[in-house]
Amino acid sequence: MAQIIHRSTNLLKTVSAMRHLTTASTTPITVETSLPFTGHNIEPPSRSVETTPQELLSFFRDMVLMRRMEIAADSLYKAKLIRGFCHLYDGQEAVAVGMEAAITKKDCIITAYRDHCIFLGRGGTLMDAFAELMGRKDGCSKGKGGSMHFYKKESGFYGGHGIVGAQVPLGCGLAFAQKYSKDENVTFSMYGDGAANQGQLFEALNMAALWDLPAIFVCENNHYGMGTAEWRAAKSPAYYKRGDYVPGLKEITKSLSCETSMQVAKEHALKNGPIILKWTPTGIHELHVRPWKQYRTRVRLLVVLDRTLKRNRKEMRKGWMKSLQKLRI
Amino acid sequence: MAAMLQSVRVSSASFHLPDPSKVPLSSVCALPVIRSGRSSSLDPIHETRRTRKVLTKAVAAQAENSATAASKPGHELLLFEALREGLEEEMDRDPRVCVMGEDVGHYGGSYKVTKGLAEKFGDLRVLDTPIAENSFTGMAVGAAMTGLRPIVEGMNMGFLLLAFNQISDNCGMLHYTSGGQFTIPTVIRGPGGVGRQLGAEHSQRLESYFQSIPGIQMVACSTPYNAKGLMKAAIRSENPVVLFEHVLLYNLKERIPDEEYVLSLEEAEMVRPGEHVTILTYSRMRYHVMQAAKTLVNKGYDPEVIDIRSLKPFDLYTIGNSVKKTHRVLIVEECMRTGGIGASLTAAINENFHDYLDAPIVCLSSQDVPTPYAGTLEEWTVVQPAQIVAAVEQLCQ
């Protein structure tokens, strides 16, 4: 426990130290992703990603904000100020942040009920989010939707859906509308490994491939479908291959690799039609916050939390070191 | 009773207040035909002959004589053509309107409602979908969220049960759960109802299953005139609308106006004004009721027939005025007995107009069974005109 506290104090120091470096770091640097991409019916993009320390810093800042928000939501839920369901996205923030970096607000995103951080990424404010979670009329859905129904129409965020898998055909519809109006935008239809076993996903894949809709299906595999582990629910965990004729990309989640693959996916979707992306973020919270039952032990949770943040810190540090070195030169 | 007599357009000094067991005859037009009493010994033939002279037509929609067709205004067409005309006019008017469903494009629609539209508007606007109701209904909802106005055709309403989640949760509830950010201007339409021996799964009445879904509007068309008007109104509405057609009504012929018209989605239609009993019905049962009305008029009754058209919300204004006039209600529907449209309507009328009723509401519905294949059995599960006549006679005693 002491080690964890020590490390999180380090984290705070890092954050404050970073603020001093924001102005200095727009020089491009090349970072290599920790693991290569795996492609199915598509050439995987290269591991080297060009970025700037400033971009990395903004990723980190956004991710920390999202993490803080989710942890706060967890505490509020346990204090019974948030009722009903509260599905948290901590551990998976890299997907939201990487996605936003690769696209514009005209592209559409639709997801299931783990939508708090994507809402933030699309330009939602903390005030809107917490007001909605606590059922106030200043919330993004006027307090009528709750945790599972965050929407932001002007930024192309279409929610926020409670039924597992039902948002995927809706995403198909968003892509259809984009093709209909001939605007060069794409739709990201996000779902989890649990929803990957839904029939309507395969129906949507078929239709998207049939009509070359600019739809990108993003599977966030946190290895648990509601309460059941992936290996007990899915015969084949290779979700990126489930499209068969639809190409797929697989990666372990980091924000940079998210960004790269989202860019690749967007180009592909605009030219050739649908593509599946599979991420394996390590979600920290289970389906939703249930204070009386956790299927992962507390210690393991904290270790995972720490490890994810540490990985990103390392990336940030690498970037600063290089820019610092250049400055010294 | 007195109020009813006052409204009879009859001037006769010899008229005296009849007792409840005998029913006075009043006719649609102004010629007085008075009976002081009515007994079964009266010669039915003489009675019929005399009443025929004064009766105007008992059925609202009638096929026109070809000799006079050319001189009358408007044009004659079948119900499915009327639907197509409405659809085509709306697609011409607004480029955001599109159709999606099974066999709607190249095949022209399983009931020819979209025939010729794919050639005119292209494959994207009249989209042939694979057999995947759940996802193409979801796709329509997603497209509607961005501003398109899709029309989903269920080849048979029963197939839309597969899309129930999309219709209920996404189509119906998204406007609410998003705090008003999104409107879902979809139209979900298709034929339902009991046909000619189509079997249990293809003879379903989905209006009873959908009526509880918060957020959707439901309408049922029954004539070419109201089919075209309701189709246009449904497409123009910002709410999700479910338009119920009937498999057996597609070949009804009627003369409709040439000029553009749009009907209201929340209004009921007065088919035949009357005095003794209000008969509320919709879709195919309207024709069974009108057939029964002919018999009833011959027997001396004067039923008021209202086609409710709007299944959700009910047009309680028109219905209420009618109940206040006649004080007796008979509901004739094709839905199942349990949890059908008639059940909701009975509750609504009881709640709102209880004081005006002289008798309990009678609701004639289909039997709570899967529709059999055998023709005779199928007939027995659905309300027939003879049952309607018997019910009115009992109600008016």
Automatic annotation (TrEMBL), chain A:
Keywords: Oxidoreductase, Pyruvate, Thiamine pyrophosphate. It is an enzyme of class 1 (oxidoreductase). Residues 61-279 form the Dehydrogenase E1 component domain. Transmembrane segments: none annotated. Pfam families: E1_dh. This is pyruvate dehydrogenase (acetyl-transferring). It catalyses: N(6)-[(R)-lipoyl]-L-lysyl-[protein] + pyruvate + H(+) = N(6)-[(R)-S(8)-acetyldihydrolipoyl]-L-lysyl-[protein] + CO2. InterPro entries: DH_E1 (IPR001017), PDH_E1_Alpha_Subunit (IPR050642), THDP-binding (IPR029061). One of its GO terms (molecular function) is pyruvate dehydrogenase (acetyl-transferring) activity. Tetramer of 2 alpha and 2 beta subunits. Its EC number is 1.2.4.1. One of its GO terms (biological process) is pyruvate decarboxylation to acetyl-CoA. Its cofactor is thiamine diphosphate. The pyruvate dehydrogenase complex catalyzes the overall conversion of pyruvate to acetyl-CoA and CO(2). It contains multiple copies of three enzymatic components: pyruvate dehydrogenase (E1), dihydrolipoamide acetyltransferase (E2) and lipoamide dehydrogenase (E3).
TrEMBL record, chain B:
One of its GO terms (cellular component) is chloroplast. Keywords: Chloroplast, Metal-binding, Oxidoreductase, Plastid, Potassium, Pyruvate, Thiamine pyrophosphate, Transit peptide. Its cofactor is thiamine diphosphate. Its EC number is 1.2.4.1. Residues 77-252 form the Transketolase-like pyrimidine-binding domain. It catalyses: N(6)-[(R)-lipoyl]-L-lysyl-[protein] + pyruvate + H(+) = N(6)-[(R)-S(8)-acetyldihydrolipoyl]-L-lysyl-[protein] + CO2. It comes from the Eukaryota. It is found in: Plastid, Chloroplast. Its main location: plastid. CDD domains: TPP_PYR_E1-PDHc-beta_like. The keyword Transit peptide applies. One of its GO terms (molecular function) is pyruvate dehydrogenase (acetyl-transferring) activity. The keyword Plastid applies. NCBIfam families: PRK09212.1. Tetramer of 2 alpha and 2 beta subunits. The pyruvate dehydrogenase complex catalyzes the overall conversion of pyruvate to acetyl-CoA and CO(2). It contains multiple copies of three enzymatic components: pyruvate dehydrogenase (E1), dihydrolipoamide acetyltransferase (E2) and lipoamide dehydrogenase (E3). This is pyruvate dehydrogenase (acetyl-transferring).
